[in-house]
Amino acid sequence: MIKIAIDAMGADHGVQPIIDGLFAAFKREVFFAYLVGDRELIKQHLKVTHKNIEIIHCDDYIRMEEQASTTTRRKESSIYVAMELLKNKQADVLISAGHSGATMSLATLRLGRIAGVLRPAICTMMPTIKKRPSLILDAGANTDCKPEFLKHFAIMGYEYARNVLGYSNPRVGLLANGEEDSKGNELTKEAFKLLRPYSFFKGNVEGNDIFNGSVDVIVCDGYSGNIVLKASEGVASSVFALLRDEIKKSPLAMLGALLLKPSFRALKKETDYAEYGGAPLLGVNGNVIISHGKSNARAIECAIYQALKTKKTEINQEIARAFEQEV
Fold first, then answer.
1. What are the pLDDT digits (tens) for 232-272?
2. Buried-state track 238-271, b at ≥16 Cβ within 10 A, e below 16
């Protein structure tokens, strides 16, 4: 049975969405969960016992406003204890919707990197018109990058798309300000040269290619990737808010909206971050899923499904094999 360590502390909406998401996942999948955090607080929300849940008590947790650099000294914090469960093979996967910087730094320091990987990367899924998600990485782990980092992100993204998502021949693009080979800044121009020999590399792509399905993996530095991610979330929520306001202005539009309600519901689901659960941190010696700080119960539920699939496909072993061939 797969064992998942869940950092129950530090998320924007507290413990309740984590508990609700956990029990929703239990209805579909069989697994064991370690809930790591304040025992009394967790019990207040848990309400019922479950044979596949164990609470691991911690007095401390990393607040969102705190510096990630303090994490290594906070050995009684929930994320540190959860990471130790993963490191010591007591858990197979870790999920956290708490301080993402703390999770990333601890994963790198306590688990170590896969041999050959220079920097781990956050890999997040984005909706496309082709009805199959694209991947963008790095989505925030590395603000400043070297060309070699982007090359490694491309290899890891390709392996994740092929092994976890089941894409037969994933295509990888390098995010730039134009499709021409000469476009981009100094970082992307040098990364282009390193990626050119790979058969999976399509070349430069633009921002719209993230959503049109022309490529499966989009590679960029963490600064750009995080801006793209947050901007996309903002656009999606703004479009739905504007659409709702316009519909309310006209009785005829409201009638049309009722007729199109199933389509609107499907579209909202397609663009909802919660449906993708969380973002795997690729390149470390362990399965780590970083969920959004504002995760609701559905996001936690989907993060659990993603965690189970990540473990079942043994993606870290596939990445390790890919980098062995790079030597």
1. 776 666 665 666 665 666 665 555 545 545 544 654 555 55
2. eeeeeeeeebeeeeeeeeebeeeeeeeeebeeeb
